[in-house]
Amino acid sequence: MTKIPLRRITARALPIDDQDRVLLLHGFDPARPDEPFWYTIGGAAEDGETLPEAAVRELFEEVGIRANADELSGPYGNSVIEFNWSEYAITQDQTFFAIWVGADAVVSFDHMEQVEKDTTMAYRWWSAEELESTEEDFFPTDLASILREITGGGGSA
């Protein structure tokens, strides 16, 4: 089956807690439900939206954490990736931003779009060490390095 090509400019939000862990979502491609993976929060910028604005909008929509664009730090890396998801062949420009969240941050899937609710199974806070030692799939694959750059080895900004 031929995939529909899609080009996206995305902002990825990396919530970091007081233990220098990053929040990731666990989900799957509906075309491959038996191959789950961990991924960062984020999505495509909408018309007229800056990347930091897109990052905080996605942060609220995907995990219910409210923030302002001026609370973000970064960007921490920019890359172009290609992957398949459902019927799409996606080329994605992605830029990563960090935001420090308190230990009391509450994660909620209430504001997700239905397709996100249907394909997101869980969330988890990950340390750089856990990312480096896990056998589970996560994206981006260099996330442990990005997390270490953000945290500087410890402590919040």
What does this entry look like structurally?
It holds the Pfam family NUDIX. This protein is an alpha/beta fold. The protein is built from four helices and eight strands, in the order E-E-E-E-H-E-E-H-E-H-E-H. The strands form two sheets. Strands 4-1-6-5 form a four-stranded mixed beta sheet.
Features:
157 residues; Nucleoside Triphosphate Pyrophosphohydrolase; 8 strands; 8-oxo-dGTP pyrophosphatase MutT (NUDIX family); hydrolase
What's the topology here?
Elements: E1 4-16, E2 22-29, E3 32-39, E4 41-44, H1 51-63, E5 78-85, E6 88-100, H2 114-119, E7 120-126, H3 128-133, E8 138-139, H4 143-151
Parallel strand pairs: 1-6, 3-8
Antiparallel strand pairs: 1-4, 2-3, 2-7, 5-6
CATH superfamily: Nucleoside Triphosphate Pyrophosphohydrolase
Number of domains: 1
Largest sheet entry:
4 strands, mixed
Shape: globular
**Which percent range describes the beta-strand content?**
35-45%
How many DSSP E strands?
Answer: 8
Radius of gyration: 15 Å
- Class of secondary structure makeup: alpha/beta
Helix content: 10-25%
- CATH fold description: Nucleoside Triphosphate Pyrophosphohydrolase
| End-to-end CA span | 47 Å
Q: Describe the strand arrangement of the main beta sheet, using strand numbers.
A: 4-1-6-5
| CATH domain class | Alpha Beta
Pfam family, one: NUDIX
InterPro entries: NUDIX_hydrolase-like_dom_sf (IPR015797), NUDIX_hydrolase_CS (IPR020084), NUDIX_hydrolase_dom (IPR000086)
Keywords: Hydrolase, Magnesium
Protein name: 8-oxo-dGTP pyrophosphatase MutT (NUDIX family)
